[in-house]
Amino acid sequence: MQQSQNTYPNSAQKSNGVSEQFSNFNTDFDLGLFLYVLKKNILWVILVVGISLLGSFLYLRYTSPIYQSDAIIQIEKSNKANQLLNVDDYYETGDISAEIELLKSNLIAKNAIKRLPLEVSYYS
What we know:
Elements: H1 11-27, H2 31-40, H3 42-62, H4 80-85, H5 97-104, H6 106-115
């Protein structure tokens, strides 16, 4: 019987050498080679970064915000015990500054403007 001849003499040593080169390639980082490749392909790097920045800007510019909330916190200073004991002072609370601030708030104004039929067209 004939044994198949390898085209490469010492093929075991060759495959060992290749795997050794790959393991060295995966563990070692050559800064000079990286900078050389970067310099050769600088146009592509700038192009990819520019397109990415432009795409992210356009996406953020033209998509509507998903989460938005508005809130008004109204804190009242009231003593319920005095109001209940003094029946004649129950309806007379001289402090209306909280109600004035509530009416001045942007949230109330925005809701009022949304409800009004302001989209009138005279030339239709």
